[in-house]
Design goal:
Layout: H1 9-14, H2 24-31, H3 36-44, H4 62-72, H5 85-88, H6 135-144, H7 153-161, H8 164-173, H9 181-193, H10 201-206, H11 215-225, E1 244-245, H12 257-260, E2 271-272, H13 294-303, H14 322-333
Antiparallel strand pairs: 1-2
Helix pairs in contact: 4-9, 6-9, 11-14, 13-14
The chain binds heme C (2 copies).
Length: 348
């Protein structure tokens, strides 16, 4: 069930604060101010890891990541020669594209917002509806998808084989194998795993620098972990449980996870929880790009929720005053670090 739904109680009990639905204890804790020890315990849940996890069957090698970067930035991966992965996953927009929903080949407007590729090395399942199980499996999807890059794999392989610089690079990285679908995917996935959010003011605060974030942001962090209950889905240092929830957005004919895993009523309108790193660079928000600002997002959780049977059990009525809404936004704004500028690859 981990892939379908996930409860918050594990996380809540780890910090010793009960956020269980409507319970008297939750009310009590929500009104009591958590002490320093409680806040220290909450902070422990968000400590940055020191290493990027790479899978055994696609180990890191600098030349592989470099080749993946070249492919990621190369518009020749699309049939028209216009769209590159970076067109929709652009470092200037927190590796999204700033559009409400993505714009593909021939300016075709697609149905969903481009998600970020930040911190996906820690991801367990991919796409808004979780239809890919690994970055390797994900990588070739957009290349061949008619609306996105529209290049059949054999056409792409022939095209890359015709570029001697690529022949050479693939031979170096994959001796005796060269240009194959698997190796294209492995290179791109390796590059993507190197895209890690930079240390943010929030991380410096977690590490002990009390001056790194404002008092508003500190109150926002406490709200996030207690009364506002955001932590039940946006958990861990990347702020996602990589699971699927219906959070009561206006219903459309996009049913999300339910299309991939039919027959589970809770998965109707359930989409994957996005991580919140660099979130202030990544507007507009949600799978449908329906929200322009972080304040709009918080106000949705306060009074915008559409009630329906599939609504996640953790989506409880939330009473936040204007200051508390501001505090949550101030907290989320501390999650953006100073990324190293991304240099453009020279294409072969
Ligand atoms: C036309 C815009 C567009 C292009 C080009 C594009 N993507 Fe995407 N990408 C999207 C959209 C939209 C989604 C979400 C689709 C969905 O969930 O159904 C997505 C999802 C993803 C995800 C999943 C992220 C997550 O957390 O679930 C990854 C990774 C990704 N793309 C990588 C790539 C790579 C690699 C390329 C190039 C081979 C690429 N994209 C090309 C728009 C694009
Ligand atoms: C029940 C799980 C759940 C809870 C509780 C929850 N979220 Fe979310 N959040 C999600 C999911 C799922 C999405 C994506 C929904 C979609 O697009 O359909 C999301 C989207 C977001 C986004 C937009 C991210 C993006 O990349 O577009 C932000 C910001 C956000 N939530 C912040 C919060 C805050 C702040 C709280 C607490 C007030 C909160 N969330 C509570 C699951 C949750």
């Amino acid at each position: 069930m981990r892939r379908f739904l996930r409860s918050s109680t594990m996380i809540a009990s780890a910090i010793g604060i009960c956020v269980a639905a409507g319970s008297a204890v939750a009310e009590q804790v929500a009104s009591a101010q958590p002490g320093d020890a409680d806040i220290a315990a909450m902070k422990k849940l968000y400590v940055r890891p020191t290493e990027i996890p790479f899978p055994k069957d696609n180990a890191y090698a600098p030349a592989k990541a470099e080749l993946g970067k070249t492919l990621f930035f190369d518009p020749r991966l699309s049939r028209s020669g216009v769209q590159a992965c970076v067109s929709c996953h652009n470092p200037s927009f927190g590796w999204e594209d700033g559009h409400k929903t993505a714009v593909g080949e021939n300016m075709l407007v697609l149905g969903r917002n481009s998600p970020t590729i930040i911190n996906r090395a820690w991801g367990e399942i991919f796409f808004w509806d979780g239809r890919a199980e690994s970055l390797e499996k994900q990588a070739t999807g957009p290349i061949t998808a008619a609306g996105e890059m529209n290049t059949p794999m054999d056409v792409l392989i022939d095209r890359l084989k015709g570029i001697s610089g690529y022949q050479k690079k693939f031979d170096e990285v994959f001796p005796g194998e060269g240009i194959t679908e698997k190796n294209i995917a492995a290179s791109i996935a390796t590059f993507e795993r190197t895209i890690v959010s930079a240390e943010a003011p929030f991380d410096r605060w977690v590490a002990g620098d009390e001056k790194a974030v404002s008092e508003d942001a500190k109150r926002g962090f406490v709200l996030f972990n207690t009364k506002a209950n955001c932590v039940s889905c946006h958990s861990g240092w990347t702020f996602t449980d990589d699971s699927f929830h219906d959070i009561g957005l206006t219903a459309t004919d996009d049913v999300g996870r339910a299309k991939i895993v039919p027959g589970v009523p809770e998965l109707q309108y359930a989409f994957k929880t996005p991580g919140l790193r660099n979130i202030d660079q990544r507007a507009p928000y949600m799978h449908d790009g329906s929200m322009a600002t972080l304040e709009d997002v918080v106000r949705h959780y306060v009074d915008g929720i559409e009630q329906r049977p599939s609504l996640d059990a953790e989506m409880k009525p939330l009473a936040l005053n204007d200051q508390e809404v501001k505090d949550l936004v101030a907290f989320m704004e501390t999650l953006t670090g100073q990324d190293r500028p991304m240099t453009l690859p020279v294409l072969p």
